[in-house]
Amino acid sequence: xxxxxxxxxxxxxxxxxxxxxxxxxxxxxxxxxxxxxxxxxxxxxxxxxxxxxxxxxxxxxxxxxxxxxxxxxxxxxxxxxxxxxxxxxxxxxxxxxxxxxxxxxxxxxxxxxxxxxxxxxxxxxxxxxxxxxxxxxxxxxxxxxxxxxxxxxxxxxxxxxxxxxxxxxxxxxxxxxxxxxxxxxxxxxxxxxxxxxxxxxxxxxxxxxxxxxxxxxxxxxxxxxxxxxxxxxxxxxxxxxxxxxxxxxxxxxxxxxxxxxxxxxxxxxxxxxxxxxxxxxxxxxxxxxxxxxxxxxxxxxxxxxxxxxxxxxxxxxxxxxxxxxxxxxxxxxxxxxxxxxxxxxxxxxxxxxxxxxxxxxxxxxxxxxxxxxxxxxxxxxxx
Length: 383
Known about the structure:
Blueprint: E1 21-25, H1 30-46, E2 51-57, H2 62-68, E3 72-76, H3 86-89, H4 92-110, E4 114-117, H5 123-132, E5 136-141, H6 148-153, E6 159-162, E7 176-178, H7 185-188, H8 194-201, E8 209-213, H9 220-235, E9 239-243, H10 246-259, E10 264-267, H11 273-279, E11 282-285, H12 289-298, E12 302-304, H13 314-323, E13 329-330, H14 336-348, H15 351-362, H16 369-382
Helix pairs in contact: 1-16, 4-5, 8-11, 9-10, 9-14
């Protein structure tokens, strides 16, 4: 006697379109979404008739950002593990099973020539379904430390595009293609923008400028380190663009006003990152994949403060990939209040050190990553 209901399987995958069809999966954060959109744009530039479908996680920011960029997207009910909430995690196995089933249906219905995974919750079920259906797959690994999902998917992947050297410790060497990470091109085009940046942020030429950024939510460790260093930075005449994020904005504003630090520009968000990069002599930032790639391309000396709770500590791995080559300075998140201000001032006082950092980080820049990945997507489809 059958105890479970019979579920009709999706029909076998059948392609009805003569045009290139690409499935792109992943998201969750801007660090995954913006590179994915950049890859899609590059595919369309090289093959304007290509059909592209995104797969993301329901309720995540890709469900808004991808349609705004002009592409269709399907959502999976996938979620990540919720720290400190047993109740919320009880449904994870069921969500995973539903996501795997829906991913399989999407693959069979859309019938892509190639499936691309950029990381994020939706990437695992989607690429696994594509591989089971015999679709060629490409993984875009953004970090210097490959995550568990990509390591698993790599076994059946046709190509793995990476941004750091020595990735053969995670992936088969013959599948690796060094492409760099796709970035927002408008952010890294700085030619001729310095005068406008000085005007935008009300800063003066001829005095050191430090750009501090922790992303849209801010970075608590960085913010605390900068707050502790404000008196000595003011005393040394440092001009500061301090992007705090929403949670720390009010406190930072009050602290700056209390000490009369008029050369410190406190901002909740920085909408024109290109102008901030254009005026900066030194950047303080997290070590996420997109931030590091942008810093390489704009050739700016940087102090990296890795997020200590990043999955598998991949931000520390990213930072060390630069510091091991003399291309950045690393300050631990739990040491920012004691060390960050002194590290900033020591670097600003040593032009030779700044120039050495600038030269080393420029040597790690890889441009046109999206175009290179798109070309590989099209090549795989034609095999």
